[in-house]
Amino acid sequence: MSHDQRRGERRPRLSSFRCGHCSLDVSTVATGTAHRNHCPNCLWSRHVDDSPGDRAAGCRSLMEPIAITVRGDGEWILVHRCCGCDVLHLNRTAGDDNPLILLRLAVKPLAQPPFPIERIGQL
Prior knowledge:
Elements: H1 3-6, E1 16-18, E2 25-27, E3 45-46, E4 62-70, E5 76-82, E6 88-92, H2 99-111
Antiparallel strand pairs: 1-2, 3-4, 4-5, 5-6
């Protein structure tokens, strides 16, 4: 819990933030998510939440987008790993997220298999 929360104060909601990775000015308002904290351009985030939207994390380190997972209803979810404390967080994608970067994350395991690709032909 942050010092402000122990005193009963909530951090004010910002209408925008500057991406710590690519320096884009990002609106916190986005289709598909109520608690945006990742950049739609590079998909990097900052470790600001313990639970979605609480802004209570004390770490504040950058979070690298490392993967995509898909919910049962087909919604794509970003997997972020904190560069400071290694915690993993799931973040809903937003309507204006960069589709090329999303696809790169989604196909990365196929482009870098953990075995020689030639083995597939032997199956």
